[in-house]
Specification:
6-stranded antiparallel sheet, Chorismate lyase, 240 residues, alpha+beta, homodimer, DNA-binding, 9 strands
Chain lengths: 240, 240
Amino acid sequence: MIDKNSPVPIYFQIEEYIKSSIEQNELRPGDMLPSEREYAESLGVSRMTVRQAFTNLVNEGYLVRQKGRGTFVANQKIEQSLSGLTSFTEDMKQRGLTPSNQLITFHLIPGPKNICEKLEIPEHSPIYEILRVRLADDSPMAIERSYLSANLVKGLTEDIVEHSLYEYIERTLQFSIGTATQTLEATIASEEDADFLHVDVGAALLGIQRLTKLENGTPLEVVYSLYRGDRYKFMIDLKR
Amino acid sequence: MIDKNSPVPIYFQIEEYIKSSIEQNELRPGDMLPSEREYAESLGVSRMTVRQAFTNLVNEGYLVRQKGRGTFVANQKIEQSLSGLTSFTEDMKQRGLTPSNQLITFHLIPGPKNICEKLEIPEHSPIYEILRVRLADDSPMAIERSYLSANLVKGLTEDIVEHSLYEYIERTLQFSIGTATQTLEATIASEEDADFLHVDVGAALLGIQRLTKLENGTPLEVVYSLYRGDRYKFMIDLKR
DNA sequence: CAGTGGTCTAGACCACGGT
DNA sequence: CCGTGGTCTAGACCACTGG
């Protein structure tokens, strides 16, 4: 169960083991775990190593510690939905819907001023403009306009865009996405919107603007989305 | 600077000292801190103790560690705006607007089923129902319907509600607010909504539902709000 | 009372970054 | 090469919980 000679840190191996035990329901919410000392002895490692694993899992919301009592499996993992920076694809899957795309336009254009400012690149720099209708269970859910710097995200093709852009960025380009600033507002469907989304003119739409940055702070993507008000709710957990 | 005989843990004292150094601009974003070993020696404590303080500050977004280089003051404390659980009053002040209230109704009623379920109390338990129009710079911004258990939030009066409910809950009752689950969706103004908000029927409104819980997990408040789409945007920072 | 998590020590070796 | 953070050890005493 634990490989001391692995390059993977022991505390991380312990974390993974406990996480999978929880996910496979071998450990249920409210269950008490073996004490830190028991764990340490049975694995033949120091108590501090076990403690590091436990601490991380507490911070991630999997476990709860109680002084003088023990360590327990948390009732609900709050962090799961908290501050989730997800792609449309991931978001829909989490909701139990099947996502798909309908690519409307895919252009390489000289960047307009307002976009370039947000991406922190010179005006007129080459930019990919991607217009997609996002479908869930084959029915329109949102319109999405994305802008990415062509000098940063190289080798973008229609194929990639129709599949999953985030997967390409994270898996193939090995970029690690950091944070995003997002704005939500309510608007009304114009004639063009109504057309794409199969709703009436004047229907309620949820407008979402997002600026995504990499972990090193480089702006990655500007996205303007319009979600159907009758099909989409945005959920978020907040902490005081 | 550090009191070893204090009941306050050493790592916590170190945290507070570093935090205040950052807040008073003695340490600026990008500055490198003394190494863990230097800190430990100069304070006469173990390196692991310093490390615990550093680790907590990294998790809170104050510091950034770089393998082989050092520990640095973070550029921007993301957590500041991230996942901000704020009251309407706080929210408006942050935006530079002056908040005020117009109390429409304030009733003590037997709780309807759906509300009581969310508040995790028996059906028909006494509940305060508060209906307010929220103003910013004396112009309508939102309609808010709040529900609170009268057995939990005692001594509520019209005066308190017209001032600031959260202040009463946190300052006077000494409750500490923990987390909230929030849902946002786009809707259309009904005739009644339009009346309260001074907008046209069919105008875009941002509907926000919130369930707030105390730190011990007790549900505190259910709120249904309708914000004017032309005046209000909801902003949030997300982490991957 | 025994067992738990909370804090702390004084070392150790490693992988990494920059000189 | 040296200094950094990353990991790990084998102890220790404390405050708290429960029986």
